[in-house]
Amino acid sequence: MAHPAGRDMLAALLAQWARERGDVPGDVAWRFHLAEDAWRDLLACLVADPSPFAGLWCDGRAVFAALAPQGGGMLVLSTPVEMQRYWGLSSACPAASVYERMIHDLWGVEALDARDLRPWLDHGAWEVTWPLSERRVPVQGAAVAEFREVAEVLRAGGTICEYGPADGGFHAPAYLRLALPGARVVDAQWWMGYAHRGIVARMRGSDPAQALRLAGRIDGAASVAHQAALARAMEHAMGQEVARPVAAVRAMLCELERVATVLFDVGGVAAAAGDARLARACAQAREHVMAFCGTVFGRRMLMDVVAFGDGGVSVADFVPRAEEFRARLHGAHARLEALYRHPRGLGGLVRGLGVLPAGTARGLGVTGVVARASGGEGDLRHLTPGYHDGWLPAGVEQAGDVDARMRVCLATVGVSVRILGALGDAVARMPPATDAASSPAGDGEGTGWAEGPRGAIRYWVRMQAGQLAAVGICDPTPAHMLASEIAMREAHDTDMPVIMRSFGLSPAGADL
């Protein structure tokens, strides 16, 4: 069930704040500067309905929150930092706790009434504390953070299982701790920070080309989506609008990336569950997609294909081969569907595993495949230039288990195949975009977004003299990490790899 009361409260507050600053009736206001009292009113709205929360960040002087109200778009609200403190949002929005912990690690700004005070990025190995703050100081002594103990496990004399970067396995750079008083998990905790590369600090002061290059390396599975979202945010801040052919090309590149990433995720779950045939078929189909991208665009993983303004990679070689590629991918998708539904296929192996209830998913603000598998609707492609509503999927799954997530993934591939065919036809009929290089200049704030392969990616930027002065990045991974912890509880320990892989987790997106 949705929370109409919470939505109504938020809409009323936004209308009130707009009137107070004299907005023209009917204008879509997306940016609000809030005093402490108004920020706490916002917190009260989120207590009633946490689902609009999309992200949180800081620039040292203020804390910013991104909201994604029903119907799409992006609102950015900020409140000044007073005495290095602000009222945290995690008491209302559990996913905000990840961002609050990152803000404290990077800026030394503390969230009042926070759900979780543990470090997220800084585990005692940095040379300075609060590296982005003007108050940063050298570290005098090491202090390593610790996991919380699980009383039930201690009483039962149970086992703590640990998976992480130092255990000799080929895992992502994240540390997972499972508490097992018996054969089933009663608590799961992620410990992050191993993939932190100082992306926000490195983006500040960069020009659009430099910022886009960094964005493309945040997550190799969503490189195009990150670059497209950041490019749109910078263009919004500069008052620029790209030509229709450029928007269509960006959509095409996003769909190619989506197919490759989803095939990787489904293949990973199949391999973890022991379905070798489906895993092999996914790997073959993904290799075909990546080889095609390498031939047509010169980049198998589609990094650095999006540029600020009307630049970017050419698709001249794509159009004549689009129908052949689409037909081959359509055949591969049909084979994957058949293998998944085979009596001994993956569908029968994962049904009922790793359930994420619909209410929990909505409260955490998960997006993408994870949300649609737990009854959630929403797809940022509806709001993205280059797409038509008639191309996009309708309907969701309700079970919230691994099976539902895999069925949504396979449906996503089918939708992307249709979109690629439609885009190929559309681009063939469009006049080519001009090659004139954009020369960004001026000041302004802007937002941009993209529906990434694993969920919504949103950016806010502040531009000064054509350079990026501040940036806020909202990746789907933090919410999905928390969701996976919940889905792993009460599951058998041998099912952990399957459940983890079904969330498509990318630690790099959570360690900004």
UniProtKB/TrEMBL annotation:
Protein species of origin: Novacetimonas maltaceti
Domain NADH-quinone oxidoreductase subunit D positions = 281-424
Q: Which InterPro entries match?
A: ComplexI_49kDa-like, NADH_Q_OxRdtase_suD, NADH_quin_OxRdtase_su_C/D-like, NiFe-Hase_large
Q: Which PANTHER family match?
A: FORMATE HYDROGENLYASE SUBUNIT 5-RELATED, HYDROGENASE-4 COMPONENT G
Which Gene3D superfamilies does the record cross-reference, listed alphabetically?
Cytochrome-c3 Hydrogenase, chain B
Keywords for the protein's UniProt record, in alphabetical order? Oxidoreductase
Output this protein's name: NADH dehydrogenase subunit D
* A GO molecular-function descriptor: oxidoreductase activity, acting on NAD(P)H
Task: Determine the domain of life of the protein's source.
Answer: Bacteria
